Amino acid sequence: MAWTEQDYQEIVARLMAESIGVNEVPDAGSTDDISSLPAYQPANGTEVPTVVKASLELLVAPALDAADKANEAADKAESNATAAQTAANTANEKAELAAQAASDVNAAKEGAETAAQSANTAASNANDTAEHPTYIGQDHYVYKWNKTAQAYDKTDIYTKGDAFSIKKVYASVANMEADKNNPDITEGDFVLVNTGDVEDPDNAKLYVKADGDFEFLVDMSGAIGFTGKTPQFSMGTVTTLEAGASATATVSSDGTDEGGNPKYKLNFAIPRGNPGAPFRVAGEYTTLEALKSAVPDGSAVDGFMAVGTEAPYDYYAWVNGDWANQGKIAGGGSGNVVVIPAAAMSLSDQATSDEIFNAFGGKDAFMDICQSIVNKDTVCVVADIPEESGMKLVYIPVMAVATYTDANNANFMMAIITETTFQLIVTVTDGIATQSSQVLNHIYEAPSDGNVYGRKNKDWVKVPENSNVIILPKEILDLTGSSSSEEILAAFGGIDKYKDLLEKLSTNNCLVQIGEPSLGSLRHIYTLVEYAVNFASNKQSGTLSLNIYNEEQQLRRLHFYLENNGTTARCGEASTFQLVRDTDVLTKTNTSSFTPTQPYHPATKKYVDDSIKESLYYVNNDKFLSYFITPAYRIDSDAEDSIIMCFNTIDNFKAFVDKAIDAGVTLVFINNNLNEKIYIRDYHVYRSNNNNRELSFIFNYSNNGESFQFITTRVFISYNASYGYKFVVKNLISSDNLTTITKKTAAEYEAIGSKDANTAYCVTD
What is the pLDDT of residue 551? Predict the structure, then answer.
């Protein structure tokens, strides 16, 4: 057994404690009185000899004997030297090995610390990913969590499919073929040939762009011979074929419309996708070598080979001419495949917490499954053994998501999509598990007998023809206030059909839509209409008002009038209104942040309040008043002290001047001791390139002494790099009793007998 570093250290410590060093033996001054030398003698019952005194007399004989044998020993010295050198080399090698072992121990320790740090980092990243799953936004783009930025990034993945439509219409097949390299026509786009001649066999042929060429799908013209009539197309039946079958498209006749135009239905049959193969274990082997020896060529093997002596096994698949490891399958979350016990699919709605955990193999096993889904790139399966199958084991793939907070809080959801969809949700809160499950039946194809079917109670039911749905012709959308009576009635199909429409709308609760069928389109676009109608009892006059909503979030209003003569129609001026969503406007209950960026943008109350607060510059000071009402002319240090007494600091004075110039703020002085506030809005400020600053304003105050006085002062404060500080306060009018100034001519002044003591007279000619 190799010695550890700890063994070496214990040996060194023992030697140091129980031995005496050579340097600790005292030196002898002479050989006189030396009676013995240090000697070792074995002690009874011990393995370690003791140090004893030995008389020199006892040592003489051995010394003489040793001298006799010295020559003999000398003869052996040369041979022993080689052995000694070999022993020394061995000792050196062992010392180097010991040093290397110590280094390996230190390296292993450092590696363990690094691994622990990596594990902690991986756990943190896994939790961050679990707490921020990828999602699809309301704009139909996929959003993915950015760990570095700690924010969601919008990807280029757009999940909303485009509606089926015709990309381009050609006048002939030749024109279409000549345009097959058009970069605007991409793979999967549909094009139509419209020759304008219903008798032309190429008319109304539908093609799809595939493999760089146009592939014919269906002739949409129907039977030839409806000269002068426009075929009308609508969706017929869509059926699902077995996997591997070829898709088909057919046209079936659907009678004629009120105008005599032939109607047709487009019917499609689309094959279902091939079902995914289950996970199947085809064999078991103890080692990979045993597998390769038994099955050197696995191209014909249907399934996976389990390799190992006990679970979890490694599963191998035949890939590119060799057996490739596909990972492990183990319950409870070990490996990259997690097996959900089949018992979990049989939980009842009344299952207790213990029953739920037991279905997963216990609480710890359930929590391991959640952790594995959160922290690893795992595949989830459910074990199933069909009775009729000779297979050893079948795994049904499932979709599973989970969250894991701690050993007592987690969430698990899985869905199995087969002939039905089984959904299971388990929530663990404070160590207690609850579950909900449901089975959803898939919607299979409706009967293809030409009738209309709808879903009711998880089944198809026939929908009767609804005579209360009225489709208005799209031509009415082109009518305006200047349209003639003939144009209006023609848009509705004539005077008789217009009157029939008014009568039907006035006597029945109908659903009104505007259809936009176009030749070559495989769908109808319907626009819902709100209407109001009034039809006179004599069937000669009436009004029809329509509110029409389109896909551009617009409302269009049309008003039609039938005059009393029963033959003349007119249209009121059409009006179009732009509709907005609640999210496009600010409401009084708005809680979202909004900052106006343009002069006429709306603003929230909070924005206004914050803006008002920002326009005030507060100075908390209880000394400012005495400095603004007392006339003074202070310069340099006296002025600097006065500015500090009013603004608390010189920097505050400079900051106010800067903010007044940049933002036009109001200066507010507050005396907290007396609860006094003074607002100064009318002021003059100045700032130069060399940081000179000036402030001046008119200050009004009253004197509430024995005789009331109203006094006005002018305050000037400045900091000038060249001329220093100034703080000047001057009264505009100063007198103890002056109240009135009056203008008089010299003659008027002389005519005044007794002059008013409180009046100043300005005498002019």
Answer: 66
